[in-house]
Amino acid sequence: MLQRFEGQVVVVTGAASGIGAATVRRLHWEGATIVAADVTREAVDRLVAGFEERERVDGVVLDVCDHAASLQLMQQVREKHGAIHGLVNCAGIKGIGNVFDVDPENYTRVMAVNLDGTINMCQAFAQVVRDDAYPRAIVNISSGAGILGVANRLPYVASKFGVTGITKSMSPELGPFGIRVNAIAPGMTRTPFTEYMLQDPAAVERVKAAHPIGRMGEPEEIAAVIVFLLTSDASFMTGSIVSVDGGQTACL
Prior knowledge:
By secondary structure, the chain is of the alpha/beta class. It is built from 7 helices and 7 strands; from the N terminus they run βαβαβαβαβαβααβ.
């Protein structure tokens, strides 16, 4: 068992399912104390109940769209644990629609969660830990859709290109404070968002064709790279967008 995070505290949003939950499990396995945030108490409690050593998984309810609540959470974590070493922004929702028919309310909601929520958490983290002397790192979740355009996913694509952009812009801003900022760009991954596709044989074949590796990714595979970016092994990485997509964005 690796213990790269023993004595470290990491905040994970969108922690109750999919990539977020896999990240919480991996961090716990590696010795971290995790503040696992999600939008409903039921989801948070279900996540925490899955751990035997629950004292290292602190489940909290948070809407990342709430700027004040994001800052308050970071301040509370700092007061309780004395330090915050990492932040992983997994909170996100999907959004469909194209330039002809995109629903303005849906577009606004997707941008609020995926982009504004990420900014809220990064800002809160940076404000609370900016003057600390230990290494700190942020990992944002972009997407292959934040590198290449995808038809009929306009809100989602806009939000993920935004996450790619803010990751690039924050890295020179936070680097002088010893805070690294990177993002990963997952390919199609088996999560509650994509599970419905596996019920359609034609969709399964499309997924295979879109990934040179020939399959959809697993949340644990994405979490492994997220966790690497938090470690000292990635100490010279900041401003990077790391594709974890089975080769999806390597070719048309």
